[in-house]
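It would be a great kindness if you could assist me with a short task in structural biology. The matter concerns a single protein, recorded as an amino acid sequence and a row of backbone structure tokens. Could you please explain, in whatever detail you think fit, how the structure tokens follow from the sequence? Thank you for your consideration; the sequence and its tokens are set out here:
___
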Amino acid sequence: MRGATEPFRAAMLSAGLNPPDLIEPGKFHRFPGIDKGRGDDAGWCKLFPDGRGGVFGDFSSGLSEHWQAESDRRYSSAEREAFKRQIAEAKRQAAIEERRQHEEAAQVAADILAGANADPAGHAYAIKKCLALGPMVKRGAWPQRGWTDALLIPIYHTDGRVWTLEAINADGDKDYLKAGKKRGGFYPFGRIRGASRVFIGEGLATVAAVVAADSPPAAAAMDKDGLLPVARAVRELAPDAEIVFIADNDLKPNGGNPGLSAALAAAREIGGRVAIPQLDGRKCDFWDVWHERGADAVREALARAASPPPDPPAQTPDVSGAGDWPEPKPLPQGLPPVAAFDYALLPETLRPWARDICERVQCPPDYVAATIMAGLGTVIGRKLGIRPQAQTDWTVAPNQWALLVGRPGVLKSPAMEAALSPLKRLAAQATECHAAATDEYRLALKVAKLRAEEGEKAARKALKNSAEADLSAWLGSAEPEAPVLRRYIANNSTAEALGELHRQNPNGLMVFRDELVSLLKSLDREDQSEARGFYLTGWNGDSPYTFDRITRGMNLHIPAVCLSLLGSTQPGRIAEYIRAAVRGGSADDGLIQRFGLLVWPDIGGDWRDVDRWPDSAASREAHRVFGRLDSLDPAAVGAVQDTDTATGKPDGLPYLRFDVDGLALFREWRADLEAKVRGGDLHPAMESHLSKYRKLVPSLALALHLADNRTGPVDHAATLQALAWAEYLETHAQRAYASVATPEVSAAKAILQRIRKGDLPGTFASWEVWRPGWALLSDREQVADALRLLVELDWLVCRQQETGGRPRGVYEVNPRGLG
């Protein structure tokens, strides 16, 4: 087994870990984490009993990787499956252990805070900083280092819970609670959830100085490595917030500036601005500016906050020593091509309007079209559905889930806003009607109250005359029913609140989130399992749901949940989410595969400055279409409804079916679809995605049929349009899932880009790639796969580097690949 142990140790050394010399197969080992000293046990590993593989990681940094021994023969399918099961089980054990450690650390933090009763303002560090450090900072003992007097800073996560602590002694030395959940944690100033602007900085005093000079909310990330994870957490809490990074200006003699570099990188990744403190060319942070120049100087620096400049151009590397290196082999191709959008996919009544929007906004038509179809699905809602077969009761509701993917600045948001204008006008009209109805209701309520008072008087009088008097005539008056606001769109509601809105609006709702992946990630959390179930049910459009945790006295049983979803995201964010979703765990339940209207178009072509009035005729027609569908009478378009055999009353969703030609088309297409998803040739994620087209195609056909003011069975033309949509959308889905089928390719290209820009040195360890949290490079397993690919293709070579102690594995860049 010695032959397996050494390569396993080498893999851990390459990742920046220092594993123990003795590794017993089958046993879960603990040892110091990356850059940790004796007494730390954040590192972990398990070599499988057969020595063919193992897993390892670091709880403190989030590292989690697997290793497989090289073999002279190809592993069989059964062996590969067994290896996957071993990996999954070992990682499950590690995750349980990590959660246990985090929970224990959180309890220790709570106990320490409970015993901290001294006044923080009197602590030497607080006196030195001359600042209010926030109401949640405590002062007390820090047993971990034997400090009797320390400032105790609680570190929160997005769930609002304190998971760990930072301690600061009188000399300014800092320490973190052992085994605490630090990554992505922050100390908040003010309320961050739903904020319109949030400051993010490194240290507590730095952020406190900015809050003192300006205003909250703000978040202290504790160090530069925390800036990006905390920014992602803030984006989850406040999706529409402007994020301003308050950088540390860490000027170095060699020209480096790690604090500023980290802030700029985080701002590029998350889409924020950066404020830079200045003190006569000296190293400084915002507390230094506040301390030496005052609050006005801080405000002036904040006013100069700007978006980060584009990534610097690729550097021309020194290839003078490239003679002994092999020529690197080409990397495999990246994202596959996608079909261009054809306006013929849209209802004829809405094509001029869609063209007009795209021409004026200069945005890809894909974004406008997907939004239009999601809007049509919302306004039709549960008025009627379609039964795709001739004789069964399989019924499909027309609600749609749409996700628009593109880089920042490609006008996703303006496209959605313009295409949602008819739906928003309906919402505005509903608000006006509700206001008028509310006035009438208040008057009727007063009248009912007076009648009730008079009735009570009359009843009392009758009761005096006869104890057996019938009082129902006087006490039977009922209060008027309060009007319900018709809602079409919900933006930032909890699942329970969304459920209550849906109960009041049984036709269904659209959940619209400009940055949609933040919502999806929030649904991945264990404490959001009920909300996730609600959304999954809502995709069906025709299934009941009852919330088990009822709050505020709500009766949250909904006979049929019908939710449309619409939002956008960036390529890096959706790629990371899809990878996590299809690897197993809580997210592996088909949530992302339900986004049938997923569009990821190519961005190109010449920009034109179009400055003209909108096409008013096309706009009026679009509003007429949505208005007609909003007041649609199912019977008027030929829909029928089942009858309850017990009561004789209408039962279920009214529906149309395909006509003869439409049904023949659908049957032929579905036969091909079933063969494709059952053939075993597709990635499982793509199989799951295409299987949802069984609902997508009929629902699109129904919406297209109704939008063009057709009645009766869904005809051949609408069915053909829907099938063309499916063909077009499949290419976009293939692009989205390509990062799962070959994830190492995109990551390998990202690594080479970071090398060429100088973000990575000529010799580096794997942790230097994933620790900054760069796009496509924050997943440790993906980075490991990408590095292996680059070694195989001669872009890198893996060497053992002497450190004076245990050697560590590092990667050296082939200069031939950078010329």
